[in-house]
Amino acid sequence: MRITAFVVQAFLLVSLAAGCAMTPATSTTAAPAPSGTSMTTPDGSRSSSQSGGGTRQASSVGSTTRPRLEGFRVADSLSDIHFDFDKYELTADSMKTLDTHAEWLKANPKHLVLIEGHCDERGTDAYNVALGERRAKATQNYLAAHGVRTARITIISYGEERPMCSEHSEECWAKNRRAHFMVKAQ
């Protein structure tokens, strides 16, 4: 009897792990898509506005309202961090950069931060949106662990939708695998 229960539990765990690998993550709160783009809905389907576009998701941890993406701008003090192919784990270089970012954010407590997760063009749209969200979330978690309140952080995944480089080479793809930072004053 015990062996049967153990086998059933093991089967369920393996099935769960295998079934989640390519399923895009969804957030409980989603930012409205800017006009002219489409957005992934919680059930995974796409809803479009006037001119179509890629897939996006946004979430704001610690907030029950939908974050507004208007007003965010590039902060010269917060440079992009980069990821290895098909990974969302932070590298040693990324952590060093994020340590500096955490200090800047703690010194500027009236600024909200938007972390954009980006991927290179390889992989499906849905997979890249999920991977971009994991990259943004890993970045958010690191900043939170270093004293930045999560209520100040919004994450969004653009997947492969907004490449920094459009060539088809490893050097170019490496530039596109990134977390990008935007800020706005509260």
Please explain how this structure is put together.
With 186 residues, this protein is an alpha+beta fold. It has a single domain, classed as 60s Ribosomal Protein L30, Chain: A (2-Layer Sandwich). Helix content is 34%, strand content 20%. The protein has 4 helices and 8 strands. The strands form 2 sheets. Strands 3, 4, 5, 6, 7 and 8 form a 6-stranded mixed beta sheet that branches. A two-stranded antiparallel ribbon has the order 1-2. Strand 1 and strand 2 form a beta hairpin. Helix 2 (92-107) crosses helix 3 (125-145). The longest helix is centred in the last third of the chain and has 21 residues, at 125-145. Mean pLDDT is 76; it is low at 11-57 and 59-64.
